[in-house]
Amino acid sequence: MLALLSVHHIAVICSDYAVSKQFYTQVLGLEAIREVYREERDSYKLDLALNGQYLVELFSFPETPARLSRPEATGLRHLAFAVSDLDATVRGLEAQQVAYEPIRVDEFTSRRFTFIQDPDGLPIEFYEV
């Protein structure tokens, strides 16, 4: 068995860097901790943190293919954030004019959750803990 400690980061490839950068920093409120332009790849890489913890790498590449289906495509199914008050989260989404799915209840834990989509359609979950 491997001695894994924790999840280090999640990498997301976007189709429009400026739009996704605004979404992840202004809508979700993640903190940009390092931004690099890699000229040889015509690619940006933005490292983002949540509460001071490195969490997401946002990449841009020229001519990236679209996600084939949602949500059951091979690969990352969704990115989930723990929230303490789902109602407050939903109010914050409404204030940012971000559409969200109806609130559901996890059948195994009885916890409430909802989903939104990032600018490229990646499902993002908010799970009340």
Automatic annotation (TrEMBL):
Residues 6-129 form the VOC domain. One of its GO terms (molecular function) is metal ion binding. PROSITE patterns: VOC. It holds the Pfam family Glyoxalase. SUPFAM superfamilies: Glyoxalase/Bleomycin resistance protein/Dihydroxybiphenyl dioxygenase (SSF54593). Keywords: Metal-binding. InterPro entries: Fosfomycin_Res_Enzymes, Glyas_Bleomycin-R_OHBP_Dase, Glyas_Fos-R_dOase_dom, VOC_core, YwkD-like_dom. PANTHER family: FOSFOMYCIN RESISTANCE PROTEIN FOSX, LYASE, PUTATIVE-RELATED-RELATED. This is Glyoxylase I family protein. It comes from Hymenobacter gelipurpurascens.
